[in-house]
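anyone seen this seq b4? input:
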Amino acid sequence: VQLQACGGGLVQAGGFLRLSCAASGRAFSDYDMAWFRQAPGKEREFVAAISISGSTAYTDSVKGRFTISRDNAKNTMYLQMNSLKPEDTAVYYCARGWGTNKHQYDYWGQGTLVTVSS
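predicted toks r here
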């Protein structure tokens, strides 16, 4: 499985971005998927996850602002990020798996940088 994340960039506080994660292979619809992020000097942390059935989970700090979704026909997962805050600045990674612990994931994308200016 190969995962490629894109869509990051520089945005002002209050703005929005949409991240995409494209997956190789024909079994994407069989994967639970998630987004993590890692800010400078900090541990990689869980952001949001979406299951095979479409169930979703979010970390508290992004609830109501971020939306995770998937398009199995396009082998792609998305993260719509609205009302961005400077503390959302991080490298965002997509991964295959389920749970809030990074060790529960086996494949990772290369990361895309999101910078939110105040």
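The mean pLDDT is 96. The CA atoms of residues 7 and 113 lie 8 Å apart. kinda curious what u guys think
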